[in-house]
Amino acid sequence: MSATPSSDGNGSSVSVAMGPGNQFIMAMPYPGTPGAPFFDGRNVTEFLDRFSDLCTGYKLSDAEKMRRLPRYCDMRIGQSIEFIQEWHERNWEKFRKLLCEEFESADQAQICQSRELLEIFKDRTRSEDADPRCFCRHYAWISKELSRRSQLDDYTRILWFVQGLPRLIRKELLLHTGLDLYLDDLAKIDFDALLEKALQIAKRSGRL
Predict the structure, then answer these.
(1) Among 95, 60, 93, which residue's Cα sits nearest to residue 81?
(2) Residue 92's closest CA among 142, 146, 56?
(3) Residue 158 and residue 195: Cα distance in Å, rounded?
(4) Which residues contact residue 196 at a Cβ distance below 8 angstroms, ignoring those fewer than 6 apart?
(5) How far, in Å, CA of 145 to CA of 85, rounded?
(6) Of 33, 10, 14, nearest to 23 (Cα)?
(7) What predicted TM-score, i.e. pTM, was given to this entire model?
(8) Alpha helix (H) residue ranges in the chain
(9) Could you tell me the sign of the dihedral formed by the alpha carbons of 173, 204, 136, 165, in that order?
(10) DSSP-assigned letters across all residues of 156-199
């Protein structure tokens, strides 16, 4: 059985599954119908993620995905989107970044993933018997998103990660890696490798 994308003539994408002697058609949720993503200016990250996942499920290209997106927005927002150069260029990543910046103040995901809140998070006092995985995973997730949005440079990402670790794990990590926070070029350090090393140290010391 194979599946091919098609159109219903009204702009709603369909996925056609072909089998011996039969055909099954499943329509992509039409704008305004139950289950269809809708953007009214709030929580732009959640909207873009849901809309992108939906389009991926129906095998739409980035160009086709962007062509349809304004229809899933409040009318005024949809009309303004059609004046954006990145929308006409059908460049999804550039368009997504611009839209997230435009509606950042009303986006809970971006508010929770701000540089300021990440700094507060890494400065919290952590007891030596606390499970370091909570800090490591949360920090890795937020810092990755901030890096993607060019709001956190590689140097600061490494520095804050090490500073936020429980004291004994931080001490062992610096000892085992030979890392010097003041002399080394932290921007060249592989964050994922350093994260894995910190978790290994925590495991060996019985903190996991």
Answers:
(1) 95
(2) 56
(3) 9
(4) none
(5) 24
(6) 14
(7) 0.57
(8) 44-57, 62-68, 75-81, 85-89, 92-102, 108-112, 115-123, 132-148, 154-164, 167-177, 191-204
(9) negative
(10) HHHHHHHHHS-HHHHHHHHHHH---TTTS-GGGS-HHHHHHHHH
What is the spatial distance between Cα 93 and Cα 180, in angstroms, rounded to a whole number? 36
User: How confident is the prediction along the chain (208 residues), in pLDDT tens digits per residue?
Assistant: 444 444 444 445 444 444 455 545 467 899 999 889 999 999 999 999 999 999 999 999 999 999 999 999 999 999 999 999 999 999 999 999 999 989 988 998 888 888 998 999 999 888 877 788 889 988 998 999 899 888 899 999 999 999 999 999 999 999 999 999 989 999 999 999 999 999 999 888 765 5
The total number of residues shown for the chain amounts to: 208
The candidate with the shortest Cα–Cα distance to 170, out of 126, 116, 139, 118, is: 126
Distances (CA, A) of 4 to 1, 24, 50, 70, 80: 10, 11, 21, 24, 32
Q: Name the 3-class secondary structure at 12.
A: coil
CA 111 – CA 96 distance, rounded (Å):
17
Nearest to 164 by CA among 188, 142, 190, 189: 142
Whether the Cβ atoms of residue 65 and residue 47 lie closer than 8 Å to each other: no
